[in-house]
């Protein structure tokens, strides 16, 4: 089983929760030919096998339920403060369902209505719902102003799905939406260049350029890093994290221990973290997840010799959004292998299928996931394990970088 996740943000662009998307088998696109309640049961089991905290941190897990599985006791395996019960848009409503939802609410669970497109005052479940999710592609904001006002008057939390631009996010926020789901946060908003960002990028480029020389100097790298005491401290912390040894006594020792490829990776991680201080933390975490996920996909996809380049490609895949520049501008001045620039700028080349597969997994586009993973000869289990490990790794690294 493959479980993907999509972040849900509050109005401060902090992660409120993750909607969990899942595929059971290679052939499945939604429920794999079995009942939806069986699929949801598999997801809940998978959450325990994977570790709920690894998939959603300390946030809410949004999971789809139908009118059958919502009656199962398995729902109660997840604590109320970790689960939002999403009722599917085509759910069959009867007296038993209404009684069960009241029972769930009394236990402390939040109830969300997924892809809501009905008349608000006429739909029986709106009185029980805590969160109402509007797909703003299917129901544009202009068409739901009256229902939105009614819902807000009843203290409902409104969630805008399929938010793809900053303009849509701002408009939904003005209307009273408090939660947002989509890829608006990972796209550049090009509104001028920041001098501080450019300067920081230049400093990091000097270090990365030294690493990429045919004969890099550890002395020169040590000198460049020690010019910034905060950077020096963080490099030493990372060496401690990697080695499990708290006795790393110098920057030079840390660099020697990690090796050139590890140095390049960690410096790049720090660079993205620093350049993106005014960006949602989830954007930087996505870069880390993509980095480890891409590395693993290269290994399993018979591209082991490209694993380091794949890792860097995943890491830099959000640099345009972090710098609010085109990808071509964002990568300018960074000496990267052509396989990376071809994938991120030209959308072609040896690493592009891995980049495509990562994006398809994040969006739950299962037809594309199936096709690309077959082309790369990556099994469903390898895909699932690689993604879960990438999330866990990103969580660990985030705690070390900050």
Task: Write up this protein.
Residues 197-382 form the HDOD domain. It holds the Pfam family EAL. This is EAL domain-containing protein. Residues 1-202 form the EAL domain. InterPro entries: dGMP_Pdiesterase_EAL/HD-GYP, EAL_dom, EAL_sf, HDOD, RNase_Y/CdgJ. The protein is α/β, with parallel strands linked by helices and 402 residues long. It folds into two domains: 2-186, EAL domain (TIM Barrel, Alpha-Beta Barrel), CATH 3.20.20; 195-401, Hypothetical protein af1432 (Orthogonal Bundle), CATH 1.10.3210. Helix content is 52%, strand content 12%. It contains 18 helices and eight strands. The chain has helices spanning 36-50, 52-56, 95-107, 145-153, 166-175, 195-211, 218-226, 229-243, 251-258, 260-275, 281-300, 307-316, 319-323, 327-330, 338-346, 352-363, 366-375, 380-401, and strands at 2-10, 15-23, 60-65, 83-87, 110-113, 131-135, 157-163, 179-182. The chain has an eight-stranded mixed β-barrel with strand order 1-2-3-4-5-6-7-8, surrounded by six helices. Strand 6, helix 4 and strand 7 (157-163) form a beta-alpha-beta unit. Helix 6 packs antiparallel against helix 10 (260-275). The relative contact order is 0.10. The model is unreliable at 26-34 and 192-196 (pLDDT under 50).
The share of residues in extended strands comes to 5-15%
CATH topology of the largest domain: Hypothetical protein af1432
Number of strands: 8
Number of helices: 18
Task: Write the H/E string, N to C.
Answer: EEHHEEHEEHEHEHHHHHHHHHHHHH
Fraction of residues in helix? 40-55%
- From the N-terminal CA to the C-terminal CA, the straight-line distance is 32 Å
Largest sheet: 8 strands, mixed, barrel
Unreliable spans are 26-34, 192-196
Cα-based radius of gyration, to the nearest Å: 23 Å
Average pLDDT metric: 85
Domains, number = 2
- Order of strands across the main sheet: 1-2-3-4-5-6-7-8
Under the CATH scheme, the architecture of the largest domain is Orthogonal Bundle
CATH class descriptor of the largest domain: Mainly Alpha
**Basic shape:** elongated
Class from helix and strand fractions: alpha/beta
